[in-house]
């Protein structure tokens, strides 16, 4: 195993402590030390530290976090905001919710430092509404921090004020897109905005706004406490630091694995006990269902932003869905398209109509009722969606279709005469025996 796989936990360091979600446990493990230090620094210097650390956005796009902060225009006397995107909805993605559940104060402390650095006095967490237990835990963490004088008015006697609002959304995947999230937060229907203007100029309530992912913001206290060089010493040249890798599916020990960027799936599988007994890897996603799928030939691709892109996919949210040889690629892609078609906001024609027809054709192929030319029709529809939709949801829907056909075209063509459940009995890939009878 390489040295990259030997990192001790950072964000998950106290997950196994007693009641790690409480302020008492968090402060016993250096919690809020970074905030107590940062609030006495020049805000611009904090931006520079994060910029020099090389932290890139952990929500999927990988845009440099400190650079994003620096895009805000000069203060004009009006408010500016920090909004944390906690609307984790992508199939396979499951890193932010466990983090907020186990260690919410890491996010709260990161929000305090970030807000101070960008000159914001009001910050928001936009949370996926279905996770009520996480919502309650965040509310409790914000309350604990406020009662301890770490939030509120005249924090630690410095004259700086900060209010954090935890907002539960209504469960729309589209609200993971930052401008749709802002519209929803303002009380409107969540749909993407036309850009420019970008949120840094006219975001929440038409004021300068920084929108960051949960893990990005939660990583800030460690950078301030450990220093930019400590963070930059991990990862790769262009993808610094550590992050969560969420392994799910046909792996012996699924779960969250915190490691430096640049680790490989082969190394992660070693940590996770490998593919389930008696089976072998068939295909996997490096960053959730919206990223082009990889196969066993990609086991040694370094999982950093640039290496994954060079290999033809995207690192995304590091949601590694693992599928063995019992799984029908057609069925997997069809289920993803069911999701994207359902979650399309309908604002633009390519996505609204295209996801519907992709789903219709895929269901034909899954049932063994495909028509001559259906595989090429899928590619044609996907090409008419990709790059032509209002936001990235359209691209997310086209991606698994195109990459699935690229690697497993023969399997799609078999859908013109044989149902997927005959080629790949669904009972064989069920993870739990009690579900095997209902797998279809």
Structure notes:
Helix content is about 40%, strand content about 10%. It is of the alpha/beta class. It folds into three domains: about 220 residues, NADH-ubiquinone oxidoreductase 51kDa subunit (Rossmann fold, 3-Layer(aba) Sandwich), CATH 3.40.50; about 80 residues, Ubiquitin-like (UB roll) (Roll), CATH 3.10.20.600; about 100 residues, de novo design (two linked rop proteins), CATH 1.20.1440.230.
| Assembly form of the protein | single chain
Summed up, the helix count is 20
Q: In CATH, what is the homologous superfamily of the largest domain? A: NADH-ubiquinone oxidoreductase 51kDa subunit
The number of domains is 3
Label the structural class: alpha/beta
* C-alpha end-to-end distance: 39 Å
The CATH architecture of the largest domain is 3-Layer(aba) Sandwich
Instruction: Report the CATH topology name of the largest domain.
Output: Rossmann fold
Largest sheet: 5 strands, mixed
How are strands sequenced across the largest beta sheet? Answer: 6-5-9-7-8
How would the global form be characterised?
globular
Q: Averaged pLDDT, please? A: 93
* DSSP E strands, number: 9
CATH class of the largest domain: Alpha Beta
Strand content: 5-15%
Flag low-confidence runs.
1-6
């Amino acid at each position: 195993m390489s040295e990259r796989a030997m990192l001790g936990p950072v964000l998950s360091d106290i997950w196994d402590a007693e009641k790690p979600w409480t302020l008492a446990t968090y402060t016993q493990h250096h919690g809020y030390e970074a905030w107590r230090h940062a609030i006495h620094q020049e805000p611009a210097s904090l931006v520079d530290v994060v910029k020099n650390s090389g932290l890139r956005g952990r929500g999927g796009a990988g845009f440099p976090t400190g650079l994003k902060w620096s895009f805000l225009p000069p203060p004009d006397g009006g408010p500016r905001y920090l909004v944390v995107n906690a609307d984790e909805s992508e199939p396979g993605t499951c890193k932010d919710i466990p983090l907020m559940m186990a260690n919410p104060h890491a996010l709260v402390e990161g929000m305090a430092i970030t807000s101070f650095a960008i000159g914001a006095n009001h910050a928001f967490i936009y949370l996926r509404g279905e996770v009520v237990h996480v919502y309650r835990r965040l509310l409790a963490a914000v309350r604990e921090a406020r009662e301890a004088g770490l939030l509120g008015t005249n924090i630690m006697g410095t004259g700086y004020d900060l209010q954090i609002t935890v907002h539960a959304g209504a469960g729309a995947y589209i609200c993971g897109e930052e401008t749709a999230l802002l519209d929803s937060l303002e009380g409107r229907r969540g749909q993407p905005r036309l850009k420019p203007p970008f949120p840094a100029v006219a975001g929440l309530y038409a004021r300068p706004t920084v929108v960051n992912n949960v893990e990005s913001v939660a990583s800030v206290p460690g950078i301030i406490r450990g220093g930019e060089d400590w963070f930059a010493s991990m990862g790769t040249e262009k993808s610094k630091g550590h992050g969560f890798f969420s392994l799910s599916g046909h792996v012996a020990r699924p779960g969250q694995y915190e490691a430096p960027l640049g680790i490989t799936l082969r190394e992660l599988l070693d940590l996770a006990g490998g593919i389930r007994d008696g089976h072998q890897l068939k295909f996997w996603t490096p960053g959730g269902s919206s990223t082009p799928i990889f196969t066993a030939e990609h086991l040694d691709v370094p999982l950093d932003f640039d290496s994954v892109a060079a290999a033809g996919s995207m690192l995304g949210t590091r949601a590694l869905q693992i599928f063995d040889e019992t799984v029908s690629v057609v069925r997997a892609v069809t289920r993803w398209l069911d999701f994207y078609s359902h979650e399309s906001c309908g604002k633009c024609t390519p996505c609204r109509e295209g996801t519907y027809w992709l789903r219709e054709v895929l269901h034909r192929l899954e049932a063994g009722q495909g028509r001559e030319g259906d595989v090429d029709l899928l590619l044609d529809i996907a090409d008419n969606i990709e790059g032509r939709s209002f936001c990235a949801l359209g691209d997310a829907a086209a991606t698994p279709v195109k990459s699935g056909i690229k690697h497993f075209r023969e399997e799609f063509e078999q859908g013109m005469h044989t149902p997927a459940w005959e080629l790949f009995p669904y009972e064989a890939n069920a993870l739990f025996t009690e579900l095997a009878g209902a797998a279809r």
